[in-house]
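Reply to dn_fold:

You asked what the input looked like. This is it:
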Amino acid sequence: MSFLSDMALEQTEIDIVYRALDLWCREIGAPIDSTDGRDVATVLLALYKTGHTNETALLAAMRRINPEGPIPASR
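and this is what came back:
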């Protein structure tokens, strides 16, 4: 399997990651298109690729990574 095919997502998969990203960014008060939002997107994509394949699982994994809750967005 090539690198690009391994990274490709179907639209439904993109929607799942995007909804989790939107929820997390709201919690931290960061726009999705901010540096913090892009950093979170990277983590969520990695989590999705490692088996966290729904919003609940993605957000739970993010909370395990950061057990004290979302870090406030840098201003």
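The chain is about 65% helix and 0% strand.
Hope that clears it up.
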